Amino acid sequence: MKKVLLCLLLLPVLLRAQYNPDSLLTLLGKSQIPAQTVDLHCKLSKQYQLSDIKKSKKHAEAAVRLAKQFHLKSGQAEALTLLGHANLVLGEYDQALDCHFNSLDLALRAQDTSVIIASYTSLGVMYHKIRDAHRAFAYYEKARNLALKTNDSVGLSKVYNNLGNLYEDKKEYTKALRYFSKAAAMQRQLNQSRSLAISLHNMGHVHVYLPHPEQGLPYLFESLKINQTLHNKILLSGTLGSAAQIYHLLGNKDKALEYARESYSLAQKTESSKKIRDAAILLQNFYAKQGNYKEAYEYLKTVNKQDSLLNLEHQKIKAAEITAEQEKHILELQQKKSLAEKESQVLKIKKQQATLGFSAAIMFLLSVLLLVAFRSRQRFKASSEQLREANHQMVAQNKEIKQQKATLFSQSQILQKQNALLESHNGFKTRVFSIISHDLRAPFGSIKGILNLINTQNLSQEDLTMLFTVLSKEMDHSLEMMESLLLWSKSQLSGSNVVLKSVSVQPVVADNLQLLTASAEQKGILLVNAVPENTFIHTDKERLNFVIRNLIQNAIKFTSTGGLVKIEAEEQENQVNILISDTGKGISAKNLSRLFTEDRFTTLGTLNEKGSGLGLMLCKELMESVQGRIQVESQEGQGSTFIIVLPKASSIEPLLIETDNLILN
């Protein structure tokens, strides 16, 4: 007796310290308490999920029988969930679905939220497997809501992973990857290695359908490493299969075949018809694509054999019958609840009727008292009317005061916005006048000096050629700045309008490239218009012309001889991105953060071309005036890409919209 007692006292400590199958089997042989025996069978079932799914099923079944015998509802519910998982891996979907419904029913009666969440999640998995996305999503939502309510982070991470699988089936691969990543981040934090390995597998596998499949390999290899540490043979087969698919997409056929064969070898060891079938399909496809139809046929026979063992169509029919039976059961419960509520309502009505009878007697007595009080009330009636009238006037005055207060507040808000806009425009005007007083004066001073030198000195033809070259560059710089200032001044004039209409991007780009061809040819730069013909945006064409021309000029300026300037367009749901890319010297990280700010600066082009620092400021303001914006991506030494973001053209008629710009005084 003392030995048994000592064993029972030490059992919880041993359970926490040892979870490998051999230790658990030793403890199972010594356990004499039904609840602990059920718990040990459940732990063994979880452990064998990693290596021997049939043993996992065996211990789950033992736990179900023992828990049922001793009326241990929570233990039975957990054991049924484990049994359902084993049936799922073995491809016995109908039996798995029945287990999870029974588990949910028991967990609800025992009010065991962790098992309820697990059951909801497992039912979602089952309906996902039989291609019933609507029901799968409904059960995942139930699991997620309950996990959030009870702060069950472990359960929530599994729901996020499974939601990723649903979105992968819907071919929303980016959204699926977000859910897998969210699950993996939570599982890392919670140190849930088994669940993390599954999420990493899914993160790697979804890259099969993304533009860069090679990015999925690190996740698959990390999943393989975790599963090898855990001795999880069940998941290894699928992860190796996903790696094989990626190598096949990358053109490494030998590596793909090597991983596919290893996947098939491990699948056979699991004795899971579903996993053997999946691995055989992969090898069949690889050999068929290589033209090795003999090997492809051999694996096709394996696929057919496993299909016959699985008998998926029969299982789906059985699953549908179980679903219908469960939904009928739920409907009957709802009808019983409704009937009980009706009976309760009848009792309430009877009680109310009795109360009304008593109330009628009370009302009669009150009427007598009111009749007595009526005469007294008459005396106060006149004074009450006066008080009511005074109160009415007070309410009206209060209402008027509130309206006036609201009006004043609204006017104050408008005034604040106008003041902010005025300050913004005044600040920009100050910067423009600073440019006029400094930058514009400088080139004209240089031009005047050159002309005086030509007039007063007897210069050689070589000197004259050099001076006229300098004069031409100064004139180009001055004209560029004057054009920018004139466009900005026009946008500020009172009554200046922005004409928003549907504009085809391709011809606008073509016109500006034609204007700048000569500048590009001087530097041997290739200009490429890669904008699709049917790309339309909703904007002001004149302002768009200036911005595109300015950005192309900048690209030419900062691109070395023999470089490339390319203009493209990307259509999105509600907007169009116009990309102006160059292979120039790029922008340093320091200067990149100063673009589009009040901190104006200029840098010399690849042939020492000058700039005013005004162009990008004007481009930013002009695009914002037509509900657009400008972004930039650049790396020093590798070129730059300026991105104009504007609304996509719709079927609406062109509009004439008054600008919010202030008058330039």
UniProtKB/TrEMBL annotation:
This protein's UniProt keywords: Coiled coil, Kinase, Membrane, Phosphoprotein, Signal, TPR repeat, Transferase, Transmembrane, Transmembrane helix
EC class of the enzyme, as a word: transferase
SUPFAM superfamilies registered for this protein in UniProt: ATPase domain of HSP90 chaperone/DNA topoisomerase II/histidine kinase (SSF55874), Homodimeric domain of signal transducing histidine kinase (SSF47384), TPR-like (SSF48452)
Chain positions of TPR repeats: 117-150, 157-190
Tagged with keyword Kinase: yes
Highest taxon of source: Bacteria
CDD domains: HATPase, HisKA
Enzyme Commission code: 2.7.13.3
Signal peptide: 1-17
Membrane-spanning intervals of the chain: 354-374
Sections of the chain in a coiled coil: 323-350
Record's catalysed reaction(s): ATP + protein L-histidine = ADP + protein N-phospho-L-histidine
Entries under InterPro entries matching the protein: HATPase_C_sf, HATPase_dom, His_kinase_dom, HisK_dim/P_dom, HisK_dim/P_sf, Sel1-like, Sig_transdc_His_kin-like_C, TPR-like_helical_dom_sf
Amino-acid biosynthesis recorded as keyword: no
Residue intervals of the Histidine kinase domain: 435-650
Pfam families, sorted: HATPase_c, TPR_12, TPR_8
GO molecular function, one term: phosphorelay sensor kinase activity
PANTHER family: HYBRID SIGNAL TRANSDUCTION HISTIDINE KINASE C, TWO-COMPONENT HISTIDINE KINASE
Record protein name field: histidine kinase
Source organism of this protein record: Adhaeribacter arboris
Organismal lineage: Bacteria, Pseudomonadati, Bacteroidota, Cytophagia, Cytophagales
